[in-house]
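User: Hi! I'm a student and our assignment asks us to look at how structure tokens line up with a sequence. Could you show me two examples?

Assistant: Happy to help. In each example below, the sequence comes first and the structure tokens follow. Example one:
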Amino acid sequence: MKKRYFIIVVLLLFHFAACKNFLETTPMDALSPENYYETEAQLRSALAGVYDRMGRPQTFGDQMLGRMGLEGDEGYYARSSARVGVAVYSTEPSDARIANNWEHWYEGINRANFLLANADKVEMNETELAAIKGEALFLRAFYHLILVSNWGAVPLMLEPIRSADQTVAPRVPAREVYEQILADMKQAEGMVKSISDIGHGGRVSKSAVRGVLARVCLYMAGEPINDSSKYAEARAWAKKVIDPAPEDGFQHDLNPSYQQVFINMCQDRYDIKESIWEVEFYGNSADAFQENGRVGSNNGIAYSGEDEAYGYSYGFLQITGRLWHLYEDAASLLSSDERREWAIAPYRITGTPAVEIPFTVAQIYERTSGKWRRELELVEPKNKNAGPINFPLLRFSDVLLMFAEADNMVNQTPSSEAIEAVNRVRRRAYGKYLPQESVRMVQVTNGGTGYTSAPTVTILGGDGTGATGKAFVNANGAVTRVKIIEEGMNYTTPPLIVLTGGGGSGAEAVALLSKRQTSNPDLTDDQTATQESFQELIENERARELCFETLRKHDLIRWGKFMINMKRIENDFINGDSPVPRASSGTAYGVLSFQNASPRDMLWPFSPREMALNRGLTPQNPGW
């Protein structure tokens, strides 16, 4: 399972490289860099300190999960009282979330630079040393990628800050920052281990480096850099993940079940075929170990009750009607595209004990993100704000879609290879890869009597494995529902549903199997007729597959569609007609993000505080 030793951050030992502010470098304890890097254990602790910045509340541990507007046209910040802030595109350069995000990425870069400057002092196995240096080099580049994609021209920091007298770090043109990112990542690719050697997705592997290199190249190929030559590089790097050489790769593949990808993250299980790189979180903050995050708490199905089985969730992100209508069968509560019922919450949760109330078709805008469901967490008790769910930074389906996009741009027409890459993603979405059948539903035929608590659900037989369920009891002591948590696979006949315990008796239920999709999910001739039609399909497919994974805003920017799409959603909220309805009066406040969005929001501002600390941060970004 999770490598606890790796993500422990020895803050007291590592404060020399964890400057509170970008250019504030006075050591915070007596241990200096010169006498710290002496053992392999110290070097690994230093590397853990570089990784640590990804999981902090100011980054992926909280703020970036629904509170900084990264979802673009997929959703909106679901707080009617939130009239200002970066989440609703109405903010000022002094915005604390933006400033704190900036500081944490540069802290991570400075930690990486200290490690790289001192790593060769340690005597250890050369392969292991190279891997540590490669991971730090890649992370330095990745943190620069987040900075340049959100702020544009930024300081390029390739050496550790050793003196408080360093008060000028000038902005470097975005193209130059990207070129350095490419150089660092390419060097790291030859140093880090394969994902099969690492054994989990919490550390940087060759596959992670290659997949993120494809992303970097697509960012450079699109706006604002517009270097179309990078499409070929993006294609090549994605191809290395899809079809790696036998001697240096690992064969990735899609998990047959879309929902299982996220169930695994909720339950601390790695699937390195599908989920290539994740931000790791651990525990519930019940002990001194503080490596937990708010995945599911911020961006899960909203629940403010006290039912321990569910766990608190703010449900900060509610969806737009346009995202709902990107999936097929939009007028129905059941879609042939199985992603919709998992990526988008099919129900709301209320009360103690919790009750699930299905949404109607008319309640589109009230639905929250549904990918990360706290009821699936295994760590108990559930903390209101702290949980163990991991967050994906790179999945194999993303790589397939990046390959298809880059290939389409290189060849200027949809190739059979690119079409097949998209079809692989779509076939999984329609259940084509599921072996045999799964348990999709349980029907309660007799509620029984006398239940004071929910009975245990056991699913037996049917020649399949893996299905699990959860029972619900009403105030009259009867079982009203059995919810399938995991659908399992390989069922050839309906399994037996056994309900035991709970203080009552007589409850009975039967299982209903899925029917593997008979409709053909493969792309049609119209969708692949031209380069333009295929590109539009890929853009929509990325939303269907990757929604709420913090990729959409930057996708829209590089496609030159940020303002176009944001204003389309504004129109949907206010005027919406067929096929995308307007919002109800209760969710009309959600239009704020889309009304407020302007071209300046494609880059975040530099905070006055940071501009005072670093006199090189001029001029301010346009419009701020």
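Example two works the same way, sequence first and then tokens:
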Amino acid sequence: MMKFLKSFFSSAAGLRRTGRHFRRSPMPLRAGDAATVSSEVGRHANRQMLDLSRQDDGALFSLFGSGRGGLSEAQAQTSRERYGANEVDHEKPLSWYAHLWLSYRNPFNLLLTALAILSWITDVRMAEPEDQSWTAALIIGSMVLISTVLRFAQERRSNRSAEALKAMVQNTATVLRSDPADPDGSGAHRFFGGTLHVSGSRQVEVPLAELVPGDVVLLSAGDMIPADCRILGAKDLFVAQAALTGESLPVEKYARQRASTANALELENMAFMGTNVVSGAGSALVVATGSRTYFGQLAGRVTQVSRAPTQFQQGINRVSWVLIRFMLVMAPIVLLINGFTKGDWLEALLFALAIAVGLTPEMLPMIVTATLAKGALRMSRRKVVVKRLDAIQNLGAMNVLCTDKTGTLTQDRIVLERHTDVYGASCDDVLAYAYLNSHYQTGLKNLLDVAVLQHAEVERKLNLAAKYRKVDEIPFDFSRRRMSVVVNETENGRDHHELICKGALEEMLSVCTRLRVGNEVHLLTEVRRADIRRVTAELNRDGLRVIAVGVKEMPPTQEAYGVADESELVLVGYIAFLDPPKESTGPALAALRNSGVEVKVLTGDVELVTLKVCREVGFEVRKVYLGADIEKMDDRQLAASVREANVFARLTPAHKERIVRSLRAQGCTVGFMGDGINDAPALRAADVGISVDSAVDISKEAADIILLEKSLMVLEDGVIEGRKTFCNMLKYLKMTASSNFGNVFSVLVASAFLPFLPMLPIHLLLQNLMYDISQTAIPFDNVDEELLKRPQQWDPDGLGRFMVFFGPISSVFDIATYALMWYVFQANAPEHQTLFQSGWFVEGLLSQTLIVHMIRTRKIPFLQSRAAWPLMGMTLMVVTLGLLLPFSPLAQYFQLQALPWSYFPWLAGILLGYCVLTQLLKGIWVRRYGWQ
């Protein structure tokens, strides 16, 4: 049972076991699994991919009824009906009956079922006809039924809500749709040398789930490979395949297989679902979708590895073990005491099992599910979409937020502010070169390119259509940090090729050997390099991001270009961009700071621009480290550095990931907010990955939470909702643990001295059931403002202390009730045990229900802090039923009896004393331990 609980609670209260996966991206396989693929899966998948890689394009198009222009809309619809959705089998929702079975199949329900069977054996099967009673078995069965149905209904509703929220943020693929009159198209898929489209076709965005075999997809940096594909055309197309092979370095893909191999994952002209494009671009033919993909065939047979357990999963796991250990100690003690003192071991066993059930929060899976789902819906109203439900708690527990600068601190509205020569004088030629570069590049167009292309007057002045033709392109990647296009320029009857390169300053200086000033070209000496750095530093201090531009004339006979051609360039100048700070950034940073969240800026931009923006938004910079500094540090040095600094500039993707992991290793709950390809590793490494709906595919897929508005203020709202969700979950654990501990302590005292059981097993079970039903309204409860001002963390040790501190308070008044029933109402012999048990049942139920309102807040309940109306209504209903039950016709079935009216003034005094003492001791607890 303990093994089951450990795995059960580590999966967001069973959500993934009982419905759709909330994270739909294929989970990574362990490194080395690919090497054993032939023996474990994959002979069929391996052979199929090898066969497809060897066929020529014409045979492939014929096989899938497609063409270079892709499928027509009608063909795609027909194929969709034939092949189904592009989803692997394990992502399909469970049938309702399978979900119902899984909602029942947990150790708590199994224990209750066993107890019901024992009750039937002892009360019906083995009893004399006149003594037979179905009451206990029916009540316990009802408890199982209510627990199962409530959880089933809540999780079905949660799953539907989560799917509806996720549908708001869809990943898509760019596909070619052919003209039915010209299904084959005509142009070849020669990216960069030709165009991105084929005549007779158009580009459309299609949800990944709607892709079918035969679709022609266009790939660029940041895209996920949406299905298994055969590459048709590629230029510097690098794909990260770590999700399948565990290899950290990306591999280059080509339109033709260059070397023989027997392993499908080593094929150079095939790309597989679950991988992603790091740089370059290409086109590909979809050859397999869904469960027919390589990953789909591997998924059911090869061990999958998820990300490291989050703070939520670790916390609920530890809390569960605290409660389990307590149950394993107390239940045997109750069994032994009652067995030796009463002599009826079967009755003692049933009573001990009832105690074990009472100590176990059997509604916890349902409460956690309902609370998280309610939190997700509330957050959606604040423009925050939750992809993975347990990330809500992580958001509330977050005490460090690592964020990029662009679009978060700034407006993400880049403006081309200046275009200058190498010494800072305005220069139209630099703008013209930059325009040609941005216009002809077909990879991932970023906001800098968009800002350049807004200068439409340059296109008219250059007369692009008549004078220029694109020859090739060398795409951007994060190691070179630059990109180039090659154009053929026709001027005065003479053709020549011009390589135009733009990129980060230092990377451009590494490939430039000369510079141009006016019409003169000079060698790039060290003195001139110092002048260049001085000029660009001045621009940076003004908050401008500087991109250098270099050119090189090439032979007109050369048709293909690569990274090696980016050498001996002539530096012509810079284009400088302004990204103004957001007006909301300052207040948002202050709100996060007041909420106990430390913000750290992690950016690939230069430090001078970053510091300028930080000053303008009121962000106090303690210390700055550069990527080069991080590179030199070992893990111990890095740990110290990430504690003291809050700005990190000129970072690579690996640097960002390493910083996040270092913070987590030091016990921080880390959120990372990013939207670029370079942010994906850090998003996966964080406790909670945060992206935006405008992010590249791989970043959205890696994130747990998607913001519909890229703003720290929206994120602050999400943090508050996360804390509300956590607080409401913690309420249930505190209330249940403390009240159950008090009840068991009272039972131990009573069992040692009473000649009969202080309460029958059925009374304990009924009391526990009624109490748990009242707790189903906790997800709707209010949370005190002071609890939302700091991050919330799991504290299993604190829960144990809380349980031991507050539990015995109820025992004091339980013992007072024993004395009342024994001495005042003379219920002091076995023939009067029903009166005794009825009196304690009512007092125990009301005090257990009152504790809900006493412990949900550190303030005075009902006066300074009132519960939400759903919780008030549920507790009022349970109190009313508890008071009426001994007087109702059902009393005999539960072996209760009507209480004398003189009992109720005593009851009111006991309950009042309980509330006063609890409130006084809350003050002592808060002064010593605080209140979470």
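Here is something you could point out in your write-up. The chain has 33 helices and 23 strands.
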